[in-house]
Amino acid sequence: MQPVAAARNWPVPPIESVGALTDWLQLSSGELQWFADLKGLSYKKNASKLRHYHYRVLAKQSGNIRLIEAPKQRLKQIQRQILHEILEKIPAHAAVHGFVKARSIKTFAAPHAGKHIVLRVDLRDFFPSFIRARIQAMFRTLGYPEPVSDLLGGLCTTVTPRDIWTRAAFGEDPLHLWESRWQTQAVYFQAHLPQGAPTSPALANLCAYRLDCRLAGLAESAAVTYTRYADDLAFSGGADFDKRAARFSAHVAAIAAEEGFKVHYRKTRIMRQGVRQHLAGIVVNQHLNVRRTEFDHLKAILTNCAKLGPATQNRDAHADFRLHLEGKLGFVEMINPAKGRRLRTIFEQINWA
């Protein structure tokens, strides 16, 4: 195998055989086959100790469900090695801002601030949409032999055991899980990228490269700005874009479908200056800002903490309430430094003793 032309100068480690892969990962041949699980043995065995992932079902506000598949410690170490020594060596598309060093939701939203119209499109079941064959093909483009690529793809993907959806240990109503099955669960019955693995965001970005190229080209042809943060697609433009935003949205959906993605049409939004334009929780009407309700709520909590003590405000029983508030305060400081300074002044008055 030879890498594609663009990949020849990427500083990824040379792994020319399965034996070289076992040496690189410091695994035995049997351990490598077990963790890659290309035959789906852990999927077929109804024993949690033999599985490589912990599972957690979360209910979305939309009524659908999200499955978090977190790898167990040893597999997580293997995936982190693949991430740091291979995947992070490959540059992401310029429009991608999610899970990329030196980029964030702020850099994702900033290009759309002050625009006449903002179009937001959401991709459905983003991570499980990437099947194992697609991941293996990506590793082959780096020049890795087919057996090595297959094993690397196996280490980074999984098949969800069917009994996960019938267990009530997650605190979810079994009837709700059953009703959601036709919408969500089918994508998990094939080998896919698990949401919760350290390698999944980087692999998703790399495998969506052609989608980003096509959408960036479409945006350029329409004099529109395009950025993506994971499954959130954002487009913005001037008054001319206002006249064709609906048709442009249909073109975006068509391109996404051709690239193997589904658009969540209920979450598609065309936002003009007369309404609140927001992306990833950031308001972009004139400049980057936090939502007024979120700012006022956080200000009230900090004020009550300073007056009544932090214990009176920790209603959700956070293990480290101070760290929790620090995180929320840091978000405001990143988006709007002036408002962040006002909240920081109140925060410093809290007695944590």
Tell me about this structure.
The chain has 353 residues and is α+β, with helices and mostly antiparallel strands. The chain has 14 helices and ten strands. Helix 2 (29-36) packs across helix 7, helix 6 crosses helix 7 and helix 13 runs antiparallel to helix 14 (337-347). The model has no long low-confidence stretch (mean pLDDT 90).
Write the layout of secondary structure elements.
Elements (H helix, E strand, L loop, with lengths): L17 H8 L3 H8 L4 H4 L8 E7 L5 E7 L1 H13 L19 H5 L7 E8 L7 H10 L4 H11 L17 H11 L15 H8 L1 H13 L3 E5 L2 E6 L1 H20 L3 E2 L5 E4 L5 E2 L2 E2 L5 E2 L1 H17 L12 H15 L1 H11 L6
Antiparallel strand pairs: 1-2, 3-5, 3-6, 3-7, 4-5, 8-9, 9-10
Helix pairs in contact: 2-7, 6-7, 10-11, 12-14, 13-14
Which key terms come to mind for this protein?
10 strands; globular; 14 helices; single chain; alpha+beta; 353 residues; 5-stranded antiparallel beta sheet; 3-stranded antiparallel beta sheet
Short recap of the structure:
The protein is an alpha+beta fold. It has 14 helices and 10 strands.
H and E order:
HHHEEHHEHHHHHEEHEEEEEHHH
Low-confidence stretches: none
* Shape field: globular
Q: What is Rg? A: 23 Å
Structural class: alpha+beta
> What share of the residues lie within helices?
40-55%
Total DSSP helices: 14
- Beta content: 5-15%
Distance between the first and last residues' Cα: 62 Å
